[in-house]
Please model this.
Amino acid sequence: MNAYPKSEKYDTAELRSMMMGPNPIKLLEELMEDIVLPAGSRVCDLGSGRGLTSLFLAKEYGFQVTAADLWSEPADNQAFFRRMGAGDLITAVKADATAPAFEPDEFDAVISVDSYHYFGRDPEFLDRCVMPFVRPGGLVVFAVPGLSAGCHETIPEPLLRSWTPEQLDYIQGIEYWRDILSASRTAEVRTLRIMRSNKEVWDDWLKLDNEYAVGDRKAIEAGALRWMYFLAAVVRKLSQEGNAEGSR
Ligand SMILES: C[S@@+](CC[C@H](N)C(=O)[O-])C[C@H]1O[C@@H](n2cnc3c(N)ncnc32)[C@H](O)[C@@H]1O
Model:
């Protein structure tokens, strides 16, 4: 059985060349299994990169997407969305997730693939920088890489073939994320789980010959996936009364 039926049509040379890490489209397809969100929902793709995940959210689910990213150029991303026939559904913006400038309750959901670990590790981040822009009952949904317990104390040698200890600090385990997310005063954790996507999304990424993929190959080929996984998180914004009533 094909675990990624929707992702298949995105397997083109052009779209593959735009990946910035382990296949984000497959990660997103699996992540979307955890939520129900109607077409037309207003979604922020936070840390959208070059827009592959935004395109997938707009085309496959009919969402109205804000593609928010720091390192990429919004004009390039908008041209890409237009070329792909999704210019009306997606708006590309330059945004620093730690200093966002969205409207209160603007989004039904904030979705983030392989990005949240860059900006979301401060326990205050969710309440301060994300939840004000999510409507009560709305969702924050993300997939990030994870690392087995104990790996930061004694780093397995294969990991050091591609990454420094400082880079590995960005990759934390499921218990770390449980602590961070449960510290929220405005949201409740709905799902926190290890994803089945791992080797196949890395394989897709490592086939590319850009310098980042080539750099990552050394660790993965030396067996790093013994300690690495992706985790999926879904949190729901509480209403002012402190519950998630009123959500769909
Ligand atoms: C590995 S890429 C993932 C991109 C995309 N989600 C994907 O999976 O193809 C990480 C992205 O996080 C974004 N990022 C890092 N720090 C950020 C911040 N403070 N605010 C917004 N985006 C940020 C970068 O611009 C980069 O595009």
